[in-house]
Design brief:
The chain has helices spanning 71-81, 105-115, 124-131, 135-138, 175-185, 191-205, 223-229, 232-242, 264-274, 287-290; strands at 2-18, 24-43, 60-62, 89-94, 144-148, 152-155, 162-167, 247-250, 257-261, 280-284, 294-295. The chain has one domain: 2-Layer Sandwich (Ribosomal Protein S5, domain 2). Strands 1, 2, 3, 4, 5, 6 and 11 form a seven-stranded mixed beta sheet that branches. A four-stranded antiparallel beta sheet has the order 8-9-7-10. Helix 1 runs parallel beside helix 2 (105-115), helix 2 (105-115) packs antiparallel against helix 3 (124-131) and helix 5 packs across helix 7. It is of the alpha+beta class. 31% of the residues lie in helices and 26% in strands. It contains ten helices and eleven strands.
Length: 296
């Protein structure tokens, strides 16, 4: 089996107060992209003698470019702990989403594995939340208003097709460091303001409009903190605007900058004008971007 794990874009990110658990209240719109990791799954052959192999620790995960245990292995272990009885698997992850770029690649991979157990293991949302703040929203990749620290997910209508140009900037910007810098800078909004912003976002996106129709709401409160740690993010945003992006923004905690375009053709033209090796052009807001594609 092959499954795709789509990247996610933060079309906006409003930062709220720090909670008792150390996380922050957020208000964001998540959008899946056509850019996706490819995950190949194979059932492992039983050992000599015909004994079946079941249980945690018998799955194999291969993910070139990611050192140490990743979220896929943790997702499998969590499913086994809950009694998931499928035969052991060899999971090979082909990373197409840049690592450490703020595009949710690891979370997407883990969520894709959890989806295998839909209907077989209860409380997948709880397992997802324990794996990471972005994993619950990736269980059902689709446009969504996301609140809390990522656990409160409200699906939104599919938007009109549009495209993005991504400038990952080499990755390597730690999420925890960006939030710590945001706290140092005194960034953030009150809970009441987050509620009002959620209402406005819900109304703006509720009719299936392109995000370009409400770009005045597309703000990332973490951008000053990320730019403080990585000034080159500002250069990437300026380059996208100079290449014709209707709107340019930081996604998540960065360092990826993205530009929004009405059409895929316009996005390709902008990428050609940028002439950067790290530029990625992809679709958003359509069925191919929002649905997992399986082949057997």
């Amino acid at each position: 089996m092959q499954i795709h794990a789509p990247a996610k874009l933060n079309l906006c990110l409003y930062l709220g107060p720090r909670r008792e658990d150390g996380l922050h209240e957020l208000c964001s719109i998540f959008e899946p992209l056509a850019l996706a990791d490819l995950i190949t799954l194979r059932t492992l052959t039983p050992p000599e003698g015909g004994q079946s192999r079941m249980g945690a620790g018998l799955d194999e995960v291969v993910c070139p470019g990611v050192e140490g245990e990743n979220l896929v292995a943790r997702a499998l272990a969590a499913l086994r702990k809950r009694g998931w009885r499928r035969p052991p698997l060899r999971v090979e992850v082909e990373k197409r989403i840049p690592v450490g770029a703020g595009l949710g690649g690891g979370s997407a991979d883990a969520a894709a594995i959890l989806r295998l157990a839909a209907g077989e293991v209860t409380d997948l949302e709880q397992i997802a939340a324990a794996l990471g703040a972005d994993v619950p929203s990736q269980l059902r990749p689709a446009l969504a208003l996301v609140r809390g620290a990522g656990e409160r997910i409200e699906p939104l209508p599919k938007p009109k097709p549009h495209a993005v140009v991504l400038l990952p900037g080499g990755g390597g910007l730690a999420t925890a460091a960006v939030f710590a810098e945001a706290d140092r800078l005194g960034l953030g909004r009150a809970d009441e303001e987050l509620e009002e912003l959620a209402r406005r976002l819900r109304a703006a996106a509720g009719a299936g409009a392109s995000p370009l129709a409400f770009r005045e709401l597309l703000v990332n409160d973490l951008e000053p903190a990320a730019r403080s740690l990585r000034p080159d993010i500002g250069d990437a945003l300026d380059a996208l605007r100079g290449a014709g992006a209707t709107h340019a923004l930081l996604t998540g905690s960065g360092p990826t900058a993205f530009g929004l375009f009405d059409t895929l053709a316009a996005a390709h033209e902008a990428a050609d004008a940028l002439d950067r090796d790290d530029a990625i052009v992809c679709e958003a807001g359509n069925e191919r971007a929002a649905k997992e594609r399986d082949s057997r």
